[in-house]
Amino acid sequence: MTGSILLLVFVTAQRLGELVYARRNTRRLIAQGGVESGARHYPLIVGLHAAWLIGLWLLAWDRPMHAGWLAAYLALQGLRVWTLASLGSRWTTRIVTVPGETLVRRGPYRFLPHPNYLVVAGEIAVLPLVFGLWGYALAFSILNAAVLWIRIRAENRALGMDAAGARRTRSGRPNGRNRAPPVRTG
């Protein structure tokens, strides 16, 4: 039971800390001329993540933890840190583009256009599995997929990318040679 509470405290503190970091970065990017896109769906993301975490507190605080799923969750944290470190001060939970800035092409962004969303999808599924909550993991994974479908489309539009994450040329056609990850992900 104590381990479950400690893990939930860790995840809650992590999420709250990331919100503070994201808010600071968002303010700075806006001050540099950044433009926010997709603000209308942002409350959906916040609501989903808040409901997910509150539900875990209600259902998992006294449940045993499964070591294999815990190891998978901790591995995802390594990927999370790599993603955030690769974006640095550009990371935010909102879609903010700064005109004239180049897209980040280091870290996991060399391989994927939206690695942070892959990590988040993994976390939403895996953390409930740590506590044996299979139905919870499935339900929130489906909800998260629906929200990410909206989010990734909005982010790709803001970054001038097609659905596959390839940058578009000035004519609007995909430019297969110029695959680039987004300036920020959240």
Structural features, described:
- A hairpin with a 5-residue loop joins strand 3 and strand 4 (174-179).
- The chain contains 5 helices and 4 strands.
- It is 60% helix and 8% strand.
- A two-stranded antiparallel ribbon has the order 1-2.
- Mean pLDDT is 89; it is low at 168-183.
- The protein is elongated, with a radius of gyration of 17 Å.
- The protein is mostly helical and 186 residues long.
Defining traits:
mainly alpha; two-stranded antiparallel sheet; two-stranded antiparallel ribbon; 4 strands
In a few lines, what is going on in this structure?
With 186 residues, this protein is mostly helical.
Number of distinct beta strands: 4
Proportion in β-strands: 5-15%
Helix content: 55-70%
Number of helices: 5
C-alpha Rg, in Å?
17 Å
Biggest sheet descriptor: 2 strands, antiparallel
Terminal residue distance: 31 Å
Q: Averaged pLDDT, please?
A: 89
Topology at a glance:
Layout: H1 2-31, E1 35-37, H2 42-60, H3 67-87, E2 95-97, H4 115-130, H5 134-158, E3 166-168, E4 174-179
Antiparallel strand pairs: 1-2, 3-4
Helix pairs in contact: 1-2, 2-5, 3-4, 4-5
